[in-house]
Amino acid sequence: MVGTIPIGINIETSDLDIICEVKNFEEFERLCKEHFRDKQGFSITRRVVEEIERIKINFMIENWPIELFGQNKSTSEQNGYLHMIIEDRMLKLYGKKFKEHIIHLKSTGMKTEPAFAKILRLEGDPYLKLLEINNWTDEELRDLWVDSNDVA
Questions:
Q1: What superkingdom does the record give (predicted)?
Q2: DSSP alpha helices (H): ranges in 74-121?
Q3: Which terminus of the chain is less hemmed in, N or C, by CB atoms within 10 Å?
Q4: Burial bucket for residue 117 (CB in 10 Å: 0-12, 13-18, 19+)
Q5: Which CATH number fits the domain that encloses residue 20?
Q6: Do 59 and 90 belong together in one domain?
Q7: Is 150 contained in some domain?
Q8: Domain annotation covers residue 1
Q9: pLDDT by residue for the chain (152 residues), tens digit each?
């Protein structure tokens, strides 16, 4: 499980994100159809992005939106996992006020990565920027959050 729920910044409309390492897309799709096709909102999207095939399965269980996401890549190397890890580190480094501001931006409709980028004034694609800073030291990350009182 990745995303906002494990790191405590989910809001009422957050979905449950589960990433999977998929070796056989046809078999994964077949199994998902077998187990979830009767669930509300069931849909499957398959596409290739940056030469990597991916599959996304969406459905609802007991009013919870669920998203299964698969790539032929270890889950610990997938962007969803890497984003969650750096976001969690920053939430721990920057504290309660930072977390509250992220949740506020999300509650206004902003996606998670753009919310982090906005607060930290990261230029460019927020999804790529978070991947770029994933290996920074805590000291380097602390320098991003220069003024905890200025949360524009």
A1: Bacteria
A2: 79-94, 96-107, 112-120
A3: C
A4: buried
A5: 3.10.180.10
A6: no
A7: no
A8: no
A9: 999 999 999 999 999 999 999 999 999 999 999 999 999 999 999 999 989 999 999 999 999 999 999 999 999 999 999 999 999 999 999 999 999 999 999 999 999 999 999 999 999 999 999 999 999 999 999 888 865 444 44
Q: Please tell me the total number of residues recorded for the chain in this structure.
A: 152
Neighbouring residues of 33: CB distance < 8 A, sequence distance ≥ 6: 44
Number of domains in the chain: 2
Decide: 134 and 85 in contact? Cβ < 8 Å. yes
CA 4 to chain centre: 7
- The phi-psi region of residue 50 (left if phi > 0; otherwise alpha if psi is between -120 and 50; otherwise beta) is left
- Residues spanned by the domain of 50: 16-73
In a domain, 132, yes or no: yes
Which two tokens mark 81? 């996992």
Task: Give the separation between CA 136 and CA 49, rounded to whole angstroms.
Answer: 26
Domain contains 9 = no
Judge if 91 and 58 occupy the same domain: no
> Would the pTM of this model clear 0.70, i.e. be above it?
yes
Q: Which residues are paired to 64 by β-bridges? A: 61
